[in-house]
Amino acid sequence: MIARPPDEFRDALLQGLSLAGAGLQVSRETVVALGRSGNVLMPGDALALRVTGAHAAVIDAPSAGFTCRARQVRRLSLEQYALGVAFDNLSVAHQDMLQRLLEEFAPRYMK
Asked: Are the CB atoms for 50 and 1 separated by under 8 Å?
C-alpha cells in the first residue's frame, strides 16, 4: 500500500524489491490521488510504502512503513501505471526488515 503522508493508504501491487527501492503497479486513480494540487504524482514526491499481508507476516510487522520518494512514474495503459520508488533514510531496523523480505521472496521480486 502507498500513500502521501498523512493521507490514507491506497493499493499497490509490488513488482520488484531491493534494498534501494521498490517497483509497484498502481491505478491511474492512485497516481492522481497521490499528486500535489490536482496534478499527477511526479518524480521526487515523498511517499510512504506500507507492507501488508504475507509480506508483513515475514517481518513480524503488521503495518511496517517505509519512507520513500517517487523516482519513476510511467503509464502502462489508460488505467495502470508503473511506479518506481527509492527508500529514504532507512533505519537499521527497516534495513533488516527489507533483508528478511528479500530472503523470503527473492525468487519472485529480484529482477
From this structure: yes
How confident is residue 58, by pLDDT bands cut at 50, 70 and 90? low
Query: Measured between alpha carbons, how far is 21 from 6 in angstroms, rounded to an integer?
Result: 21
Sign of torsion, CA 86 26 58 62? positive
pLDDT, mean of residues 59-79: 84
Per-residue pLDDT at 52 exceeds 90 = no
Residue 110, C-alpha cell as written in the block: 529480484
Pairing of strands 21-27, 46-50: unpaired
pTM as predicted: 0.84
For the chain, the C-alpha Rg in angstroms (whole number) is 13
